[in-house]
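Subject: Sanity check before I submit

Could someone independently write out the structure tokens for this chain? I want to compare against mine line by line before I put it in a report. The sequence has 510 residues.
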Amino acid sequence: MTALGDTRIRTVVIIGGGTAGWMAAAALSQTLGRAGLSIILVESAEIGTVGVGEATLPQIRDFNRLVGIDEAEMMARTNATIKLGIEFCDWGTKGDRYIHPFGAYGAAIGPADFYHYWLRARTSGDPGSFGDYCFPIVAAQNDRFALPDENPSSQLDRYSYAFQFDASQYGAFLADFAQKRGVKRIEGKVVSVTTDGQSGFIESVSLESGEEIAGDVFVDCSGFRGLLIEQELETGYEDWSAYLPCNRAYAVPCAITDTVGPYTRATARTGGWQWRIPLQHRIGNGHVYCNRYVSDQDAVDTLMQNLEGEPLADPKQLFFLTGKRRRLWNKNCIAIGLSGGFLEPLESTSIDLIQSGILNLIALFPDRDCADSDRNEYNRLMDLEFERVRDFLMLHYVANQRDDGELWRDMREMQWPDSLRYKIDAFRTRAIVPEYESGLFQQQSWLSVFIGQNIEPESYDPRTEQMASDDLDSELSRMRTAIADRVSATSLHLDFIRDYGAAFDGERAT
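---
Independent answer below. Compare away.
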């Protein structure tokens, strides 16, 4: 019998730095570094990263805890602000505005879910906006933030938060963090790859300098080009542009002239949408679009004409194809980040998909043979994650009533995936939001888009009729007042950042 130690992985080689590479390095060093694992990261300073400013999801706080990152220090090093949700403007029809929050709507007042009571109250009166019943929405609208209670006494206090930060600074922060924990960084460009003639496993990579780096497992964080997963292993790519057609973006930072609110904004445009990500030192802006519906020149003109402040750089153009690798783990190579796939930045899912890839790798960390069972389970989990994110992003496009562009008409009339149609039909007919055991976006997220983009259910849960109308109105009024009062007593967003020790105290970067 072969001893377990004889087959253990001893060296992991990560190709590419940036957010994906250094997140992987930090997590692997923290969770497996003491088990004798050597972690080598290869990157070239001559090869730029895509990061132009990142908004995240609350799951990044779990990553911070896993690797032992001090939140305030990270925020100061990356010029980060707080994010309580994403504001969507003009997505249903022009003039519509709603926030997808990182918190629950309302609280339990009977056997049915809260939103059914709100739907019932709308049939006989005006219970106010659905967002009035969600603390992070009202706080974001009033530019306020407080850390949530880890053990809330009320459902109204159950919310979370994420961050908006400078992606290049985040990568540099993680690079320092990981190298202090034993990760070895090697500067250089990969020029060739050696594979085993029988298994097809990658054995080593050779650098432009002539140095050869061997490893047992290789993590491809090389970006869209997929240096190992695609150029070497020819894994193949699932093209999802029929579902998510936007394929280009322009990005540009601008000066701050308005309130730096604790939320990201996504504003629908004729051939795509525009993001606004407020940081401590600047505003990140971008226009995501499909070149079948709008020209490059019109796209960049739209972006520059809708900046709130003076541009701080020339606009940078990005190209992408929505979709994913057919297998994110192939042979002894795992693709994480853009090398594995990209689903456009509408709901800030890029970093979360990186995080999912890393955590699944740690949970299924293999021996040197990379058993089929490990690879198959990893690919199953990641396929499911990508598909469910895809469906949620599509919902924003297909649930529109706009009449000012072919993109919006085509998205309404396109063939939807069965999984998405099932969710929409369930809400439309009976106001049901089918829930998954796993998946990034749960009930509150789907509800925010369904209601925010005017998908009207034909009925609601009849159990709500057990409550008298007057009692229901009183309970809803009490909830709105409680949230409004709590928000009024909450610190301003930037005051919190300063008091938390997360304010950037050096020279302002541009």
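---
OP: Matches mine. For the report I'm noting this point. The longest strand covers residues 248-254.
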